């Protein structure tokens, strides 16, 4: 039995698999910002799924940068109380099984590159826009190597609108949208606002494309899936002229299961 968790800044997705290929039971809960309370709630949720047999492997994808031993979070902007807490050790203690820690966007990107929208492409750039903005570069079905992980959302951008310098994540993520507009992204329906957000997203995407040079860009997340892809492509057509043509730019197809399926892939 495999236990897979995708822990984001707002929601945690929990899945169980017997064969290591498919999820048989899953649940989606709010991510508790308090580390100890979150561990208790995760145990309660897993117990509620009715684990039919002993858990042999745990894989956790979590939003943030991992310490080099990959046993804990170094820093997560949206889960500060989790920083440097013994996440892998605590999960192993609770469920009596070894636990492997990964960045959540890397697991999602891996799944989209091998089972989802990017599966016919050699180099996949994956971007997820939700509470924050994360991503990963997947090459030939494997997460590309890095020293500390990939954090495209923390690149700095200058906007002509006010000449300020901001992190990409602070311009287009769900947190940014609520700060800028006073509304949660799911409550925002104004097409002009989404077009502006999509153009802002395109500027950061321009930089990511020239750094990663992917065959395809897959965009996912609760905010990402609401972006105007045509507005993104129109902006890139004007700015990204160094290459013969744009990479394919599409929405992800796996939704909430992406992190769980990516976790299964690294577990097996």
TrEMBL record:
Entry-linked Pfam families: ROK
UniProt cross-references to InterPro entries, sorted A to Z: ATPase_NBD, ROK
Entry's family note: Belongs to the ROK (NagC/XylR) family.
Annotated protein name in UniProt: ROK family protein
Organism of provenance: Candidatus Daviesbacteria bacterium RIFCSPHIGHO2_02_FULL_43_12
